[in-house]
Amino acid sequence: MLVMRRRAGESFLIGEAIEIEVLEILGTRVKLGIVAPDSFLIQREEIKITRDENIAAARSVRQQNISSFLNQVASQPAGAPVKNLTDASILTTKCT
Amino acid sequence: MPRIQTKCFDELEYSPDAVFEFPYGIPGFEAEHAFVFLEQPATHPLMFMQSLSRPDVCFILIPVRAADRHYKLCLSEENLFALRLPADSQPRMGKDILCSVMVCAADDQRPHPTVNLFAPIVINLRRKIGIQAIQTEYSPRHPLISQVPQEELVACS
Fold first, then answer.
1. Based on the structure, what is the number of domains in chain A?
2. Would an 8 Å CB–CB cutoff place B101 in contact with chain A?
3. Pick from A42, A96, A10: which is nearest to B39 by CA?
4. Residue B125: left if φ>0, alpha if ψ -120 to 50, beta else—which one?
5. B2 and chain A in contact, CB less than 8 A
6. How far is B143 from chain A (nearest CA, A)?
7. What is the third-level CATH fold of B3-156?
8. Contacts of A89 in chain B (CB under 8 A)
9. Is residue A21 part of a domain?
10. Which of A6, A69, B119, B139 is geometrically suited to a Cys-Cys bond with A50, CB 3.0 to 4.6 A?
11. What is the spatial distance between Cα B21 and Cα B142, in angstroms, rounded to a whole number?
């Protein structure tokens, strides 16, 4: 792994088309600015975890699983915020 | 009224103004830019987030606070921008935005059903725009099973 020290305001290049600038360093967080052609997909590592979970969640949607989820949810207390949220979903299509 | 083929409810009519736009799709489903949200009394409070273009793409959601009553959503500047919300304040859950999480059934690697508190689905209710907003301090595989102490359950019922 190449390790490089940079101060805020300094940048580095990857090839000729990609420039990464350290914009700001605040405590444990670094703010970066990235200039790259549109064809490069730039994403956080967290996106990979999310993608894997999304695919697993979509695969798991089956009729027999729905009742199992409901059994789990029924054991949860239904607090006021939950009611507000579902009330807010009046914009959604209702099916019977 | 246009019709949609759904994964869980066969074919349904939907109103065009019930369509929510996901400008960036969601990770793993980047091409899905339009979803409808379906609910029925029998499966309350579950919601079904159904892709408009792919009948096989449907997610089961529950309101985040049904999974974690103390959940705190913190939207980054870029999340707020994507949702077309003001950058200078956090939106109110249930008023400005809807925040729900995906449920995933148990399988070989997952002994119990889990909810993804790490990546909630957040919707701007007024503009009907949705994103999946990463919350790194939460788990992508939080158990759905109630972990609330018995005395609190009694107090809430």
1. 1
2. no
3. A96
4. alpha
5. no
6. 10
7. BH3618-like (2.30.290)
8. 37, 39, 47, 98
9. yes
10. B119
11. 27
Nearest to A49 among B7, B41, B118 (CB): B118
Q: Which residue has the tokens 């979970």?
A: A53
What are the distances in angstroms from CA A6 to CA A18, A22, A88? 16, 7, 47
Range of the domain at A39: 8-59
Q: For B109-130, what is the mean pLDDT? A: 94
Note whether residue A93 is domain-resident: no
- Assigned domain for A74 exists: no
Q: Which residues pair with B102 in a beta bridge?
A: B61
Among partner residues A53, A69, A81, which is closest to B46 by beta-carbon distance? Answer: A69
pLDDT of res. B106:
87
Buried b (16+ CB within 10 A) or exposed e, A12-24: eeeeeeeebbbee
Report chain A residues whose CB lies below 8 A from the CB of B58: 58, 61
Q: ipTM score of the complex? A: 0.89
State pLDDT tens for residues A55-86.
999 999 987 778 777 777 765 544 333 333 34
In a domain, A67, yes or no: no
Joined tokens for residue B127: 């503009």
Whether the bond between B2 and the residue before it is cis, its omega within 30 degrees of 0, is no
